[in-house]
Each structure stands twice: as structure tokens, then as C-alpha cells.
Task: structure prediction
Amino acid sequence: MFQPDPWGILALIAVAMCWTLAGVLFRVSTPGSVARKLSLLLVVEGVTLGFSDAPMFLLTSPENFINAYPWFASVTAIIHFLGDCALLALYPAFLAVALQTKMTRVFSTKRARNGLLIAATLLFLFVISTFFIVSLSPFKTFSYSLLFFSLILTFGYAFVASIQAWKNATGAARSRALIFLLAFGFRDLCWGTVYADGIWATLTGRSQFPDGQVDFGFVLYILGTLVAVPLIAYGILRTQLFDIDLRIRWTIKQSTLGFSIVSIIFLLSEGAEILISSQLGTVGGLVGAAVAAILFAPLKRFAERVASAAMPNTKNTPEYTSKRKLQVYESALAEALHEEGISTRERALLKHLRVSLGISETEAEAIESKLVAV
Result:
């Protein structure tokens, strides 16, 4: 019944990543903050993906499994539709706080958020009614299409709003906006494509399991989250750890160097064993180690070039470190300023952060004045 399919495993990993990052954000964030809203959004995203048909890659025969356990299809459908509708209610409200642009400001009011919640609730009830009530089943195609179309509009709106936020941002905010644009933009495009395909499948009656396999569209569903969550985590860490880019650069450099050395030893040892004789395989390995030692300096320079290409403008210098510390403080200050000003508790935390980063009061005041003036 079950098979170790890589896509099914990746679907479960993507869900676990969503919930893990959500848990971390919830624990370290304050009520009402962007991070707290993002944690809730990630929980919903994990639920939506986890209770879709994406994990059914793990089943050797999804159709037979659903026919044998119809209750399973009903339960997963209810939870999945609930996740879809929750995204409609939560995503625009999150964008209003996270991006703070003219395009998203319309969803920053309590009336707009309540309106989204009511509309999403009514849509959920409509979809579920057509799913269970026989007399309403003729409207099933319309209800599904309406839900999917609403999600496509939401993802499209989010993608355009992210581009606008990135174009209008400056300083540290621009770097973070670019990372979030890449993360959410990729996820929005993937998921939007999947829901567009869902409309087509609903209208044409196409099976989700052609030839007994899950539709390829679910691969995009999985990849959207699988790629987005690490990028989101990096975007958050970049605002919290001033040396995160240096750490990543060092990891890339050391990994490239190690991989190059191991590759030389492996190729020479295996090549000697296959082309000449098994007895010479060990000799080939020793020769490979000697060659790697001779080429260590060129390999090190090659690894440095790879790291520089992967992480440009990242150098372990006092100037770069000082700049990154100021950016980390600016990001924390912008987070504290985003709603009703800086509370006493937040002011104390900012002071502790400023001291730990070695930023002077004059520099901190200049950063705050710049952000307030924006």
C-alpha cells in the first residue's frame, strides 16, 4: 500500500519545515508582531499542503486507497478546504503588516480583516455544503472554481505587492524585501499554477491520478513550500544574526573544497580499479590523495571563487561586520515601530541589542530618525 516515493517524503518534509519554523517564530515573537502573524500563516500553509493529495505520492494506488477509505477523503477534504479559506483570510492581512505599502494598506484596518474573515467563512461553508449535501452537488464545480479562483487572485496580488515593496524599500529593508520576494514569490507562482490547474481539472473532470499516479501539478505544490520556507528562515535570520552571510560563505567555501578533494581521490581510485585492476584501486586512491595535496592551493582558490559567486559582497572585514550590525539593529527597530510605536519593554530590548552589537547611542538615534521620517 505504501511506497518510499521521494516526492511523498518531500511533501511531509515541507509540512514539517512549515510547522517547525512556525513554532520557532511563535516562541520568539511578541503578540501582534509580523513574526507572530507569519507563524500563524505557516501553520495554515502546512495544514493546507499536508491535507492535500500531495502526500499521496506515498501510496502505490491512491484511487484504491480512497475507494477503500472514503471517510479519509472526506476528512482530508474538509481540513484542506479549511486551510485554503484560512489563507484567503490571513494572507492579505499579513501582507498589510509585513509590506506596509499603499497596495496592502487597504487590509490593515480591523474592518477589512473582519471582512476577509467573513468572506472566507462563507466561501468555506459554500464549498463544504456542495461537497456533502446532495441537493447542492450541481453547484460543486462552481464552488470549487470560485475557491480556486479566489486563491489565484490572492497569490497574484501577493506577488505584485511583494515586487512593489521591494522596489520602494531602501537600506536593510530592501535586502530583506528581496529575500521575501524570492521566497513568497516562488511559492505564490507555484501554488497559483496548481490552483489554476485545479480549475481546469474541475471543469473538464480530469482525474487527479492519471495512470494511477498523482498529477505532476502537485510537484509544484510541494516545491513551492520546500523552497520558500528555507528562504523565509534565511530572511529572518539575516535580520537577527549580523554574521549569518559570513557563516554561509564559510560553509560554501569549505564544502566546495572538501567535495573537490574527495572527488579527485574517488575518481582516481575507482578509475584505476575499473580500467586496470582491483588491486590498483588502493594505489589510485593514494595517488589521488597526493594529487589533491599538490593541487590544494588551486582548489582553495577555486572554492573561494565559488563562495564569492554564491555570496557576493560578503567579506570578513571590520567594515562589513559594522555595516551588518547596523542593518540588524535597523531591522529590529523597524519591527518595533511598525504599529503603535515602541513600548517600554521593546525599548529595553532594543537597548540590550544595541549594546550587544556595539552600536553607539548616536548611531541608534540616527537610524531611528531616518525610519520615523520615512
The two ends are 59 Å apart (CA to CA). Residues 333 and 368 are 7 Å apart (CA to CA). The domain at 6-240 is CATH 1.20.1070 (Rhopdopsin 7-helix transmembrane proteins). Confidence is low (pLDDT under 50) at residues 240-252.
